[in-house]
Amino acid sequence: MNWKNMLGCGAAVAVVSMAAPAMAQVRSFDIPAQGVDQAISTFGRQSGLQIVAPGGVSDIRSQAVQGQMDTRVALRRLIAGTGLEIASESGDTIVLRRAGQPAPALPPTTLQDVIVTAQKRDEAAQDVPIALTAFSAAAVETYRLESLRDVSRLTPGLLVSAFNQSSPTIAVRGATNTFTQIGANKPVAVVVDDLFIPRNSAATFELFGLNSIQVLKGPQGTLFGRNVTGGAIVLDTGKPALGDWAGSVRAGVGSYDLRQLDVSMDAPLAETAALRLAASVKTRDGYGEDRLTGREQDDLNSTSLRAQLRLAPTDSLEALFGADYSEDHNGGRTLSSKAAGSDGDRRTSELGVPQAFDRNQWGASARLYWNLPAGQVTSITGYRWSQSGEDFSGTGANFAFLPSGAQTVSRDVDEVGLLSQEIRYASPKWGWGDFVAGLYLAREEADRQLLVRNFAARSGLVTSSVLTDQAVETQSYAVFADGVVRLPANFDLTLGARYTRDEKTASLRRVDAVSPAGGFLASDLSAEWSELTPRAVLAWSPNADLRAYASVTRGYTAGGFNTDAATLSALTTPFDPEVVTSYELGVKSQWLQDRLRVNAAVFHMDYEDKQELFFNNLTRILTITNAGQATIKGVEIEVAYRPASWLGLSATYGHLDTVYDAFVIPGGAVYTGNSLGSSPKHKGSLAADLDLPVGDEGYLIGAASWAFTDTYNTGAAADPNLQIEDYALTNLMVGYEPRGRAWRATAWVKNAGDVDYVLTPSTQGVLAEYLGEPRTWGVTLSARY
Q: H or E segment at 540?
């Protein structure tokens, strides 16, 4: 059966199965009879629900709950005979009370876990032997995590920056690349509702209405598969609740003429059907301006729409049909000269050319979950499409200011479509263990047109004008299996492997308007690669609150073609995959009756055939090649503490020690011994959230975070002009909620110290810099119903 037929089968399953859980909230439970407070805490982790219980119940004994069942059924079984009852339910929060007593209104006194899908099952983050950072929907709102750059501030090991609007830098533990060629892949995956985003130009966008954000660190080559050498960022939009009307609205205004409106609604269509609609609109003036053209830059105008239909026609079948659309545009980046033409203002540019960025993207998916006595079958059929275009100056000053050389101006347009099908089987959780196995198929069609022109210093004469019309078609096939075996003495052994095969076909039409002899045409160039990426994890869990693990995992980023090639030979010679082997020791623990959480990981990663872009001094060609070997070592620590029901504290720290073991440019520089780019040695954060009752009137809410990023290089060269100096950012929020929590009003400020920090330095033509966001502030009013 070829991949097209397989995709058709997936779509057919989506239709046929509708005649065949309410997986509504079916989870696996293993909770012995014990004190109710401890039992409820364990239940919260295993169910993914937030349970608010009255105090003084530690002497009451719960019932045991084992096996797969609906979460509400499991909870009622757990508290049967305890004198407790369910007082109210709202989304994923359930409030308990003593029979006949009013429901407590205080937030929980224990830390709440986030349900993640790092192992292709719904599991509490604390139970997964993988280094990961997870943010719940409440944390996303509390800390105003509106972009991946916001997420990176509070995540050890994750760095998100940008060269320009269409070329973000996403690095996990130093694993990244800065390639823009359509024939190359990224080592960090961004996944939305189980769908892989293939192009970085479509990977960073406004985050809204998310159920959770999960950052998985290190190679994820077994279960997430496609090119995941460094890590994966998993965005989950959740699903509408059955049987209940629910919704929210959030409106805000702020500095730089910020205007923001987010709306969502869950509507029951029947007892077994629900519809979710969500929309977000955000506009803002620019942080910078081109003083030569008067055009604002780094502004924002974005619109996002999302719809999801949930059907649960039987107790064994659930289907989620989703669609989304978004568009955004701005006036490009503020690349400010530090030399020729500079006016001394780091928030103005001297480019003198119209810059702009425009992007639109959409996706559609059908996710089916079929619960059988012998396990669960999942089918995920999806398509994602994106188109982006950017006009920008790569040189930091207009040609009129340059004493020599030229100003480089580019127009970069790409269009990418990815059709994918995943089918997997998850066994029941037997006493001796369980496993997941599946098949993944994808077809990606990508086109890119890059026009690069050079304008001579002083005169502005066009000295070069090259158009590269690029096209790459990729077919990816993978089969995977991952399972755990329960061993004596509370040990678990997880073994998994994925076999991936990638086939690429590339074409390039290069047109040189100034020197026609430099043009060429090549089509139907093909190459294929395959790799087996295994993992093994030995975990020890002496009790429910402690898990230590040791793992060995392998990741793979596919090879490709240098579709920016200046010569035919540079195009026709593909570069090979890069492979990473990671060794990790970790611990996940909870203390003080689940009020203190301490997670830590120590890792060592070996890079083989690392892909690098450099100028070959022998061939005089800029190309991608497998340059050498590298080693990455580090430590990550995350601590969370809830000293009182109304106060939460957290801290993170990440240490990276990276080095190129072998990297020599032919006929040129020796980078052996240099640090990898985008790998700050130290990175950490402190955060606090407040939810303090104010008499009987309501709650004073607040949040504060401080995030530090150490000095790092943006590439392999230890060039001080391409170094990002260390910086620290502070964000604050304060607000009020009434007793019923039907609405909230907040005031916030980001980058409270108005710190000037650099996203990307540039040495092209002149020294220049692109700064991150300045201090911004605003007020927000939100309501739930």
A: strand 520-543
d(CA 173, CA 60): 46
On whether the CB atoms of residues 684 and 705 are closer than 8 A, the answer is no
Q: Tell me, letter by letter, the H, E, C secondary structure of 144-190.
A: CCCCHHHHHHCCCCEEEEEEECCEEEEEECCECCCCCCCCCCCCEEE
In contact, 361 and 384? CB cutoff 8 Å = yes
Residue 666 and residue 625 in contact, taking contact as beta carbons nearer than 8 Å? no
Taking Cα atoms as reference points, which of 557, 774, 645 lies closest to residue 50? 645
For strand 348-349 and strand 288-290, is the pairing parallel, antiparallel, or unpaired?
Answer: parallel
Residue with tokens 């050079």: 454
Instruction: Look at residue 658 and give its three-state secondary structure.
Output: strand
Q: Are residues 505 and 472 in contact, defined by beta-carbon separation less than 8 angstroms?
A: yes
Mean pLDDT by 10 residues, the chain (785 residues): 45 38 59 81 79 70 82 84 72 69 54 81 86 92 93 96 86 90 88 87 82 92 78 90 86 98 94 94 97 96 95 91 95 95 96 95 95 92 95 96 96 95 93 94 95 96 96 95 96 96 96 94 95 96 94 93 88 92 97 94 95 75 83 97 94 97 85 94 97 90 98 91 96 95 96 97 95 97 91
765: left (phi over 0), alpha (psi -120 to 50) or beta: left
Of 238, 120, 745, which Cα lies nearest the Cα of 481? 120
Buried b / exposed e along 679-700 (16+ C-beta atoms within 10 A): bbeebbbbbebbbeeeeeebbe
Q: Around Cβ 4, how many Cβ atoms within 10 Å?
A: 12
Token pair 């006036």 is at which residue? Answer: 331
89, amino acid identity: E
E-strand ranges in 295-432 read 296-297, 300-314, 317-330, 335-337, 348-349, 356-372, 375-393, 406-426
Distance from C-alpha of 42 to C-alpha of 590, rounded to nearest angstrom: 11
Please state, as a whole number, how many other Cβ atoms lie within 10 Å of the Cβ of residue 718. Answer: 13
> CA 96, CA 74: separation in Å to the nearest integer?
14
Q: What is the largest CA-CA distance in the chain?
A: 88
Distances (CA, A) of 764 to 259, 409, 705, 758, 768: 36, 11, 35, 16, 8
3-class SS of residue 107:
coil
- Amino acid at residue number 653: Y
Q: Which run of H or E residues covers position 700?
A: strand 698-709
Distance in angstroms (rounded) separating the CA atoms of residues 150 and 158: 11
C-alpha–C-alpha distance, residues 463 and 455, integer Å: 6
> What is the C-alpha separation between 144 and 620, in angstroms, rounded?
47
Q: Helix or strand or coil: residue 202?
A: helix
Reduce the secondary structure of 426-493 to three states and give it as a string: ECCCECCEEEEEEEEEEEEEEEEEEEEEEEECCCCCEEEEEEEEEEEEEEEEEEEEEEEEEEHHHEEE
Dihedral through CA 290, CA 296, CA 297, CA 299, nearest 10?
A: 170
Task: Assess contact for 535 and 581: CB atoms under 8 A.
Answer: no
Q: Which amino acid is at 623?
A: T
Instruction: Count Cβ atoms below 10 Å from residue 543 Cβ, excluding itself.
Output: 9
The answer to whether 211 and 235 have CB atoms below 8 angstroms apart is no
CA distance 64 to 138: 30
CA distances to 32, 39, 62 from 59, rounded to whole Å, are 15, 12, 10
Residue type at position 688: A
Q: Which residues of 174-204 are buried (b: 16+ CB within 10 A; e: fewer)?
A: bbbbbbbbbbbbbbbbbbbbbbbbbbbbbbb
Closest CA to 288 of 345, 331, 347, 342: 347
Instruction: Read off the amino acid at residue 293.
Output: T
Distance, in Å, from the CA atom of 99 to the CA atom of 120, rounded to the nearest integer, reads 38
Measured between alpha carbons, how far is 285 from 135 in angstroms, rounded to an integer?
Answer: 29
Interatomic CA distance for residues 671 and 689, integer angstroms: 44
